[in-house]
Amino acid sequence: MSKQEFDGLTELEKHFILKEWENKIIFESTMIRNAVLNAELNVNRKKNSRFIELHKKRQQKADANYNQDARQAIEENEAREGKRWIERIYQANGLRRPKTKEERREIDGR
In this structure, what are the phi and psi dihedrals at residue 4, rounded to the nearest 5 degrees? Predict the structure, then answer.
């Protein structure tokens, strides 16, 4: 931002910029503090105890509409072509398809 653009801002806009800069500084210092505390905990942990991660991995929320559309497309495909597509995936990856309960019963003779 040039000096001319900055001078063209209103006082309220300047206050918003300062507030966001303050929030950025607070966020960065909090992240550094957390990293240092985590490193200290990991250095001083007991033998054979787990390493403490700095950031916990969170699973992303699933898109309900996408999942519903995908499930509907799969069900329509299965109605037309059957479940042969599953066997093709296993074949392409060089794997054997797991046996169903009925197939295992036939083999075991139960």
Answer: -65, -40
User: What length does the chain have?
Assistant: 110
Each residue's pLDDT, cut to its tens digit, for the chain (110 residues) gives 788 888 888 899 999 999 999 999 999 999 999 999 999 988 898 888 888 888 888 888 888 899 999 999 988 888 888 878 788 888 899 988 888 888 778 777 66
- Angle at which helices 84-92 and 64-81 cross, to 10°: 100
pTM (global) more than 0.85:
no
Contact (Cβ atoms closer than 8 angstroms) between residue 38 and residue 54: yes
Residue type, 83: K
